[in-house]
UniProtKB/TrEMBL annotation:
The keyword Signal applies. Residues 1-18 form the signal peptide. Residues 156-182 are annotated as: Disordered. Keywords: Signal. Residues 159-182 have a biased composition (Polar residues). InterPro entries: AGR/TXD (IPR051099), Thioredoxin-like_sf (IPR036249). It comes from the Eukaryota. This is G13265 protein.
Length: 182
């Protein structure tokens, strides 16, 4: 009986390792993505890095487009991203987050920032897109501007960053996010 239990738990551990081998979910494995479970296991009491949550699903078209942008232009944020804890919230992990993480709707993709302590900061919106779908981003430059803005307000090293004007909102081809059913 005991032997059976041991074999069973080893099997489960193997599954967990396999599942977390690429926490990037295809959003550029050069970036230091964490799973929500890994974040939960962290002791944030001495953490100095703001947290960036990226909510996405594999079946969502706007997510696929942004994912492609991350794959191709991820180097634009690779240095900046080292000053953050990046959390990739995809698939079933989405259901583990409450309404606080959907301040203006449960659409995807959306990006939220939290203080190093873990306190969510819904006031940190897309600098180029504050009115509706304020956590939706459709370009790497806008993601970068949002991260810079967050770092300026939340990061211990924020003062070392040169401030940069947020990318101007493109009045034309704004991609509408898809509303998720979460
Ligand atoms: C990751 O970094 C390596 C080395 O700089 C580069 O060759 C590769 O294209 C990068 N991968 C992505 C997905 O950006």
């Amino acid at each position: 009986m005991l032997r059976y239990a041991l074999v069973f738990s080893v099997g489960l551990a193997g599954l967990c390792l396999a599942a977390s081998s690429d926490p990037s979910n295809g959003w550029n494995s050069n970036l230091s993505w964490q799973t929500p479970a890994a974040l939960q296991a962290m002791d944030l009491s001495h953490n100095t890095k703001p947290i960036m949550y990226l909510f996405n699903q594999p079946w969502c078209g706007a997510c696929k487009r942004l994912k492609e942008t991350f794959q191709q232009e991820g180097d634009k944020i690779s240095k900046l991203s080292q000053k953050f804890i990046l959390v990739n919230v995809g698939g079933d992990d989405n259901s583990g987050f409450g309404e606080a993480f959907a301040p203006d709707g449960g659409y995807i993709p959306r990006i939220l920032f939290a203080e190093p302590s873990g306190t969510l900061r819904p006031d940190l919106k897309n600098p180029a897109n504050q009115k509706e779908y304020a956590y939706f981003y459709d370009s790497m430059d806008k993601v970068r501007a949002g991260m810079k803005n967050a770092l300026k307000l939340l990061g211990s090293q924020g003062k070392a960053e040169t401030s940069e004007q947020p990318a101007a909102a493109s009045a034309t081809s704004q991609t509408k996010p898809e509303v998720s059913e979460l």
